[in-house]
């Protein structure tokens, strides 16, 4: 990858100096890394920066920490940063986005897709943020938060419709957590399928506006079945897998099961929950029905829920909001997702 970062020359000089201290030729180190000598030369000359996986391998072979290797890239944050959630106490990759002069940070470990596309490396000891190769421009990032396990597909479609953006990320947070983030301006859109037992409806406007901190617009997404995966009946369950408090899946579990006399394990996304049920004999969970066929799990529907994307009313005219509605109403999206079972996509893209 071509490097325009002013710290690239420092990284290259560090690699070259450490290689020479170890008595290795360029060919020796390149062979250990599984890359060409020419690729190593471009790194040492500061003309390219290694991607995260190669950077980790370089650090390991050179006897450095990743913090040491990326130290020449360290820059002052372009704006005062703010963590979405607790500040990590261990080093690791993070995602970033610029919102109203604030650099917002989320640990990449919070994303089940992994750390490959992280934007920066966080050093809690030195309180330092170092951009990583391939980092998105923080002012060209769209953040969505919602628990739909198939929302990664949506991010791909949105990215195609919004070529001016570097990244579209979706965090798998439950409805209340997502709406709370929306109320703080930490995400651009929040996915919700909250049930109001008093009104007997999903996503009542008054509840959404209360949780989102002001007027909102809903964009219809789908109606899906949620319920029991794994054991045939709740009485036969030996372990439960559930979502975190604040999620509608957790609320459904508590309405139907209450406090079971067996161990209960929490998961931060539906895929991890369903995978736990699949590999653990006697386990069951409450999740989205569309995952059951994918993992060959039995499924019993307990509820049909309406899932909407919620955005601030003031953002309804923004290009990304219009693109979201257009993608969901488009033939390409519907053609892609129509074979998912236990989901009705007919409402997708309609304003509520």
Automatic annotation (TrEMBL):
Entries under PROSITE patterns matching the protein: HTH_CROC1
Database matches in InterPro entries: Cro/C1-type_HTH, Lambda_DNA-bd_dom_sf, PBP_domain
UniProt xrefs under CDD domains: HTH_XRE (cd00093)
Superkingdom of origin organism: Bacteria
Pfam families: HTH_3, PBP_like
SMART domains in the record: HTH_XRE
Molecular function (Gene Ontology), one example: DNA binding
Domain HTH cro/C1-type positions: 15-69
Protein name: HTH cro/C1-type domain-containing protein
